[in-house]
Design brief:
The protein is α/β, with parallel strands linked by helices. The protein is 32% helix and 22% strand. This is Cyclase.
Amino acid sequence: MPAQVSVSRLGPRATAYVQPDGGWFLNNAGWITGSERTVVVDTCATETRTRRLLDALAAHTATPRAPLVAALTHAHGDHTNGARLVTDAGGTVLATEAAAEVVASGPHTYPSVFACTTWGDISPPETTETITAPLRLDLGGTTAEVIPVTGPAHTDGDLVVWHPDDGVLFTGDLLSHGVVPLGLHGSLSGWLSTLDWLTGFDARWIVPGHGPVTPADQGLVPKVAEYLTWLLDTASRVQDPNDPRADREARARWPHWIDAERHVANLHVAHAEVHGYPLDTAGALKAMLAATGEETISLDL
């Protein structure tokens, strides 16, 4: 069974909700509370996990009945599958235009890649409000900023949520901590530029999309940037993204990062980007599954 979630108060208003070990579909979420409403950052992969998230929010806030605004950091299902529960409770869902389009066409569970029997009801919300520019939300006594990323990065529709009062930055999957990032739906070079942009926030705490919360001065941004740079550099010097030497090098350089099968998929992404041809997503996923030695990846959610 998955490990117990961790609820960490990072300041008077901001709280992180961390689902160990941060691997496949075990994302982080969180919330920022005011006297009038609450921003919940992302939902979870399954109906049950999202209900647990919302129950934890209610149990750890002084205003459990305050209206909810869910800000989705990107479109991937581990962060968005529970959004319907927010609107069913009378709340609002925010996302970038690109992310909202993907969420509305879901849910996307990729049964050819993942085996899971515990999704529950993860039908998408009937409406998602879209943002194209930074949005400052008055929560009552404090504000939260929902800021779209300019251009493709982890995906083509990322955003971050920033709480200046507590110095907490929720990055979604722009950052992962101890987990191999996955770049199938964005731009590695754009992602690198976005990481540089993240360093401009005067953050004290970073809540990554997966893995432990970290103080902002502990070097998580440059660690992820080093990995993305390595992918692009390696792709420029190998003829075949399936070159086993590249995969072995990645596993040796980042031996403690979980979900190592993602390295080969990322090499496919980098090779297509560097050499200027369309990514064969199905081929990248096939190579990733081959790296696991299994027909599908079994999810214990």
